[in-house]
Amino acid sequence: MPLELYNIQKSYRNTRVIRNLSVAFPEGAITALVGPNGSGKTTLLKSILGLVIAEKGEIKWNGKSIAGDHLFRKNIGYMPQMPEFPGNLKVHELFKMVRQLHAGEQEDPEMLDIFNYKELESKALGTLSGGQRQKVNAMLCFLFSPALLILDEPTSALDPISSEHFKNKLEAEKKKGKTILITSHLMNEMEQLADKLLYLLDGNIVIDSTVESLKQSTHSERLGEALLKMLNKNE
After folding, report:
1. Residue 168 sits in a domain of what CATH number?
2. Which end of the chain is more exposed for a tag (fewer CB within 10 A), N or C?
3. pTM score, two decimals?
4. Given the DSSP bridges, would you call strands 64-65 and 56-61 parallel, antiparallel or unpaired?
5. d(C-alpha 198, C-alpha 118), whole Å
6. How many structural domains does the chain have?
7. Residue 152: beta bridge partners?
8. Residue 108 sits in which domain range?
9. What is the pLDDT of residues 69-91, one digit of tens each?
């Protein structure tokens, strides 16, 4: 497994947000992180991104600890749910800055073509609609073909056609062997995309299963129905 977490623990003041969590994320697969608000999903993602430092545990990428390894971030394509871009910058200026950080790396221009970069490049980021900002978010995420994709509610602001384009790209990246983590409150979307599902509750993983196994074990046709049955069983 390229991405492995061992006994991760994180607290904020006196509140334990992640509780000795261990999990491995396979390559060539999409893993959905699901759970109620406050379950620890965001903290878990930020721990992998290096934006939050756990007080206990270890995160490994391809068998090597990421602690103190600032170059690990170059393996990551990250789509936050609500991207915060400098409003006064134009789109092409933002891309210029990002390209300078990745000097010499090969680009994947597919998302730029899909989301019509040319129509957006001269616009100031502060003038973009929510959907346009999310397109910029997606274009940056995929630009340098990262091996690890971390996507937080990635289709939330996209129109239906753009959403389908995005999902098609995600499937293509999975076939290339990428490790993909995604959060979403849309069960039908998770059923369509995810190979594996992790359900977090109070900082613990209470369900770790492939989507198909979860549906089969609960005799359910829909993922949402299967999840509800499993959670009721675990109460």
Report:
1. 3.40.50.300
2. C
3. 0.94
4. antiparallel
5. 38
6. 1
7. 183
8. 3-234
9. 878 888 899 999 888 899 999 99
